[in-house]
Specification:
The complex is a heterodimer. Chain A is of the alpha/beta class. Chain A contains nine helices and ten strands. Chain B is flat. The chains are: A alpha/beta, B mainly alpha.
């Protein structure tokens, strides 16, 4: 379970998160929607501690993420993260990309790490690309590679930061399919997205962000078909 | 032209010249290896948030890059004597060339690190890697690829600059050549022969560096 309590975060003078409260239950898929700059991505980075926080508390399975004594490297193994820019490691093959962290972080043997990597690459439909380098893969394939790389650490949670925003339109579908697959397998996911159909079809809850506050949250049929917040109504009508 | 070429003395001295070439190689290899290490340390000093470290790094780089290498050798050989530190010719030349190399490599590293997108480290860290693991397995291999060309140039430069060592009394290839020159007065012949040896050493070093670097560039060789 991921719990955010009165989470506040500023960049200099600008307060980007103004007291967020959110609880994500195990097995739940929560989509974060809202205009660019509303604080959605920053929120994700406060959960995996890529960003520090100024007030409030983030706990993952009861562990305070930002407490001084927390072993953040250990905690991050539970939190798979997929970025907008997929950040595949260009000097390693697909198999090596995925096997690296199991080998150096969880100290699996080379053989074991490769087996895990192969399994996850097959999982995301890249079973025939094991020995390809990222430069030989399309954007969609690289993003699926990034998902496999995160899954190889056997995370309990997956955080997606606009995972399809940098992709050519024709490649978005294959990545969303994998995300749907994960959701159907019961993975707990927090998904920052501009893909409204994904948010509607896959999420258990949708949260609308507006200038650093969580303006509206609820099941997609409620938030997306019967929005209360006027800004959300406007947002949904412009984004289609 | 009345000059008569006499190559026999050169041929007779060739074994000694080749032996001295080994000293040249030794000095260059050690200075380059140490320069690579210190250069990385200097890069981190200059990127540090601590002013003291930044100042230390910048001072080193500034002096190394903006004073003659010959003076740097003199400082290590004679200059330190003023402070009661007496280094052998060999140690002084290695130290001076290391000092110089590290200064240049620090700048090269900076370019290399800038060439690796910040997302690479972020991705590695979110997988649970420590800072050091991310550096070791993700960032540095890419930095090395980026700096490999300039690094090769630097190595060639060190080999050639080690000839300055003769002015600190080191009997490396140039020192040895000068020794035979003063005994035989076959100046042109000796220095011409030595130039050829330098050329060959530099060329072979370049080819070896290319071969050594091949594993770094396997991704580039993969077909698109």
């Amino acid at each position: 379970m991921i719990v955010l309590e009165n989470l506040r975060k500023s960049f200099g003078e600008l307060e980007v998160l103004k007291g967020i409260n959110l609880t994500v239950d195990n097995g739940e898929v929560v989509s974060l929607i809202g205009a660019s700059g509303s604080g959605k991505s920053t929120l994700l980075y406060c959960i995996n501690a890529l960003e520090s926080i100024h007030a409030g508390k983030v706990t993952v399975d009861g562990i305070d993420v930002h407490a001084k004594g927390t072993d953040i490297n250990k905690l991050r193994q539970k939190l798979g993260t997929v970025f907008q820019q997929w950040n595949s490691f260009p000097h390693l093959t697909a198999l090596e990309n995925v096997a690296l962290a199991p080998r150096v972080v969880t100290k699996k043997s080379r053989k074991e790490a490769q087996e895990i990597a192969e399994k996850q690459l097959v999982h995301v439909g890249l079973g025939d690309k094991l020995n390809h380098y990222p430069s030989q893969l399309s954007g969609g394939q690289q993003q699926r590679l990034a998902i496999a790389r995160a899954l190889a650490m056997e995370p309990k949670y997956m955080l997606f930061d606009e995972a399809t925003s940098a992709l050519d339109p024709e490649l978005v579908g294959e990545v969303l399919d994998i995300m749907r697959l994960l959701a159907s397998e019961g993975m707990t996911m927090i998904v920052v997205t501009h893909e409204m159909s994904f948010a509607r079809d896959v999420s258990d809850r949708v949260a609308f962000f507006k200038q650093g506050v969580l303006a509206e949250i609820g099941p997609p049929e409620q938030v997306m078909t019967n929005p209360q917040d006027p800004d959300l109504q406007r947002f949904l009508s412009t984004i289609g | 032209m009345d000059y008569q070429f006499h190559w026999r003395p050169v041929i007779q001295a060739l074994p000694d010249l080749l032996k001295a070439s080994l000293v040249t190689l030794e000095v260059s290899l050690i200075a380059m290896a140490l320069g690579l290490m210190f250069g990385l340390v200097l890069y981190f000093c200059r990127a540090s948030s601590l002013r003291l470290l930044r100042g230390f790094g910048s001072t080193w780089v500034e002096i190394a890059r903006n004073t003659p290498s010959l003076f740097q050798i003199f400082v290590f050989y004679w200059g330190l004597g003023e402070f009661g530190i007496f280094l052998s010719s060999f140690t002084a030349v290695v130290a001076a060339l290391t000092f110089n190399c590290a200064g240049y490599m620090a700048e090269t590293y900076r370019g290399g690190f800038n060439a690796v997108p910040a997302g690479q480290d972020k991705a590695a860290r979110t997988l649970g890697m420590t800072k050091l693991q991310s550096l070791r397995y993700v960032v540095l291999p890419q930095v090395l690829r980026a700096i490999y060309g300039p690094m090769t140039n630097q190595f060639t430069w060190v080999i050639l600059a080690s000839s300055l060592g003769m002015l600190a009394g080191l009997r490396e290839l140039s020192g040895e050549t000068q020794y035979f020159n003063s005994r035989t007065f076959r100046t042109f012949e000796f220095f011409a022969a030595t130039a050829v040896i330098y050329y060959l050493i530099a060329k072979i070093a370049l080819i070896l560096m290319r071969l050594l670097g091949r594993p770094l560039f396997r991704a580039e060789r993969a077909r698109p």
